[in-house]
Amino acid sequence: MKNNFFLRSALSVILLMHSVVSIFSGDVNDFGRLYLDTVGFSPFGLYLAWAVKLIHLFSVFLIWSDRYVKAVSVCHIFILVFGIYFVHWQNGWYVVGGGTNGIEFNILLICCFLQLIFTGKKGSGSS
Question: Do the record's keywords include Membrane (predicted)?
């Protein structure tokens, strides 16, 4: 069994659903044009949104093939930190309950990716 099997499984499902659903619904385009472009990323908002979604999608395969897991984790931590800063911070902590669209889920995901970084293969640059 792979190291961190359950963690990899959960992250893979989250990344897959977060990318595939927004790609097929067209939400990725709206996020790029209607949000990212308006907060200062114009004219690159659409490209940035697609880059994030494609990183999510391809990361699933890299995590399961046990390749570049540390690099994938660092990329996602970077994406999540920027997501906290630009999207979630003003909404507080809670995703649901005490508020909406807050940072708690991003913090949990960051900790999950940190776990993958620090429990990966020792001495291997490709993990």
Answer: yes
